[in-house]
């Protein structure tokens, strides 16, 4: 099939390469000329496993362009994969969706199905169809379908080609048939619903996962207060199939491009309908506090933080990505600097992005060892493999005082005790080592 994909971010590019991989001819449209020239040279502008290889393997069926007049004409299916970032009031900003619609209306020259993959509030697809139908050339039949994405960064290609479900939100059998043809080669169960239900499935899923994380984080904080161990609690809870063992890792809170914005958008949407989603509101609040949980802990060891030298290991919102959107590190490092702490950071993928985003002055280190050198405290914010594999005995050798606050539970407290460090993680009993509280 001839397919156009509008937007070459995580969702757009992964969608495009997977569709090309399953036999379609795909034109990728992005107004960012820099991205387009990178893509034409075979370089993905995102850090995502498998994308570069699929671009190379399918280069004959992929075209990259910044010109809607080249991408849209002739397309039977047009995917909208542009961002819907958070507005200042928490609602989703749909400007890019409507700008894509304008381009589609101007250039579509045949009957087609416009498929919205971006996460949009319930009712957006319906509005979009009205807008497109009023602008499109006479005689062309166009339908809008909702097909939310459920991709996790780091495993996006696998999630798309053999994920757990494809949700097709359609209002006609024609649109359903077209989408089934698009996904003919995909090894994924399909659920068909109306458009609003499909839009809601996406929000309800992401909000539920965010709730699950905030729940285990609150339980972790309580575990610390009563002296229980959250890792074993999560293990025990997860053995119950009704609960499931995934998304029960406690830590310094969720970040990324989806959970923070989707929780706020659903909360906003509920308020608009005179409702309060109390559980979602609580998840948002818990997450905000959790992001700076380690700073509160630091005060146990250093009542005054001013003048301390601190190492921060991990900046991206999770391992395997350079993405810093809503990463706990942004807030964490800002609070440290506000408190007069000298900060050294290390991350294997996200330092360049951090440098661009973050205005505060920090020292960028090219190894974990360099970051730890002569510091008074170390904060672990992302569970990179390099951090997990770092020998615990090196902490006391490199640091001035080996106080390690681990926001991702990377190490075994027993091993930390043997290494002679102060080791305080999330939801587990702290190891106070030889260095008593000051
Ligand atoms: C998420 C959803 O998983 C995906 O289905 C949706 O389409 C987009 O949002 P992603 O943002 O890539 O994907 O990352 P994910 O692996 O879900 O992690 C999100 C955040 O939650 C990270 O900051 C991660 O560290 C945190 N997290 C995740 C936890 O703190 N504990 C967990 O148990 C799982």
TrEMBL record:
Q: In which pathway does it act?
A: Nucleotide-sugar biosynthesis; UDP-alpha-D-glucuronate biosynthesis; UDP-alpha-D-glucuronate from UDP-alpha-D-glucose: step 1/1
Q: Which Gene3D superfamilies match?
A: Cytochrome c1, transmembrane anchor, C-terminal, NAD(P)-binding Rossmann-like Domain
The biological processes this protein is annotated with in GO are: polysaccharide biosynthetic process; UDP-glucuronate biosynthetic process
Q: Which GO terms describe its molecular function?
A: NAD binding; UDP-glucose 6-dehydrogenase activity
The positions annotated for binding NAD(+) are 30, 35, 84, 119, 261, 325
User: Could you say which residues form the signal peptide?
Assistant: none
List the SMART domains hit by this protein, alphabetically.
UDPG_MGDP_dh_C
Q: Which domain of life is it from?
A: Bacteria
Q: Does the keyword NAD apply?
A: yes
Q: Which family does it belong to?
A: Belongs to the UDP-glucose/GDP-mannose dehydrogenase family.
Designated name of the protein: UDP-glucose 6-dehydrogenase
